[in-house]
Amino acid sequence: MPSITIRNLSAESKERLRKQAESSGCSLEALARSILDQAAHAPAPPTRFPHDLIALVDPGEDLHSLVRKHDQPQRVIEL
Fold first, then answer.
1. Residue 20 above 90 pLDDT?
2. From the CA atom positions of the chain, what is the Rg in Å?
3. How far apart are CA 65 and CA 63, in angstroms?
């Protein structure tokens, strides 16, 4: 079975998860697996363009570098 390593998780988050696992009567690993399984099967949140883009930008920040950074080729749709 595949596995993953989660780096840079704060000590506070790990401790809170450990306490949740303990109160649920399961291991930290089982709780993390359950959380990830639920997240993987949840529907993707709807895109809220342009609000999502606006949230990435500070007032006065140059948009051109941000757009270039997130620009991805789009597939061609033939009509």
1. yes
2. 19
3. 6
